[in-house]
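name: query_chain
kind: protein
chains: 1
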Amino acid sequence: MTTTPTPIASATGGPAARTYHVRTLGCQMNVHDSEHMAGLLEQAGYRRAEEVPEALARATDAGDGGADVVIINTCSVRENAATRLFGNLGQLAAVKRERPGMQIAVAGCLAQQMGQGIVERAPWVDVVFGTHNLDVLPALLERSRHNAEAAVEIEESLKVFPSTLPTRRESAYAAWVSIAVGCNNTCTFCIVPSLRGKQRDRRPGEVLAEVAAVASEGAIEVTLLGQNVNSYGVGFGERGAFAGLLRAAGAVEGIERVRFTSPHPAAFTDDVIDAMADTPAVMPSLHMPLQSGSDRILRAMRRSYRTKRFLNILERVRERMPEAAITTDLIVGFPGETEEDFQATLDVVEQARFASAFTFEFSPRPGTPAAGMPDQVPPEVVKERYARLDELVRRITQEENERQEGRVVEILVAEGEGRRDRATARISGRADDNRLVHAALPLGLAADDYAAGAPRPGDMLTVRVTHGAPHNLIADSSRCGAAAGEALAGDTGRSAGDRIWMDDGPALFEVRRTRAGDAWERRRREAHARPESDAAPVSIGMPRLRVGA
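structure:
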């Protein structure tokens, strides 16, 4: 159902469409769901607040973006998720009192879990909907406005596959493509299967049609999404379907980089490794969640693999792709974890040499088996173990980053990856192995001087890594050689992140302009153009290719 929002007065006195702002908490699936919400709202006539000067001018520190409609897309993985949500809602309540007609919507996993309970605790919330019915957002907003009361709608099972919905993609050069939703695993610490449902796979033809469509729009990188991507094919009974999908996605014209997240070690097979190694467009990066290095704890978690299998997978990946960067997830303090169990985790981390790791203190989620297990580890013990694990991960990450020094990398220049780029005269992006790289601009070249040769977001940049930092790589090779003396002049007293890092090699800063950079530039022009009275066109999850595309 498509609804038309009631116009409000703009700063110039004329009618204007209502504006929206989406705040996303949690995983990549939530990020992609937020893109669908944005697409639905734009199809219904709303405008993104960030593109409306009148809205931006009234934005507050509450994170409302100055919008008429604020949607919080929630996560339910961490214990403090509810606390964070209601803290955010409390701040928005004050804004809503001063902004007539403002609406607040709550979506995502926590909304699926709590439903009406959100409105009971925060009665100023207008709309609550879950993970299974994204398509109802515009209708619920209109219903709430018409009835002057909260509209809550939670479905127990998926009604509309999200990928068929309109999509406002955040990036012009990189796209999320969902291949499955839900999960068939029964990990005792995880609430996701009960909120997202059983795994449902898209047909390969549908996935590849979407990959081709985003490529036709300018994207050169796609990330295949699923709660357990390497179980893809279970729904239609085809073993090896994921490996085949990787090869096919990598062969789509215009796509230069294919990534995926997240696989499960129990279902990870050699045909996937072969597909990664044999397909040039599939990137040598792998996120493989370990969770614990103790076999006893893995059994308690219902993780259907053991550390020997996990390490064997890593060994086979590195045999085929020696430069692959492997990352992981780790949980500290799972119920019953002893010092011996924790030491086993430290041992596996030391042996695995992860490029980086996401480490978490165990959070008991209501409704999961682990929440009611005996032998909950005391918080002070969890925190002490977490600190030791964090120290180990940081040391190994830095050592592995230092091993990259001297390596020539091609990075996909991105927006928002380097928060201090303006201060350090650098631009940022991801190398093929997904490591974050901050690259210095040549002396005298401004980051936004595209006519003079600065790379645009979406362009490719070849540089040499000159320093391995704790969390990223620094590539200041543009300043090497003849410009070294001038570049180093201000280094005295600078912090590590601010100083220039150079080696003995020649200057290197080669820009390859791409279709993706063209797409980014085109989108930027359109965003700054005076909008027409009708809503701008929105790309659909599976659009048809334009003739001649």
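note: The first strand starts at residue 8 and ends at 9.
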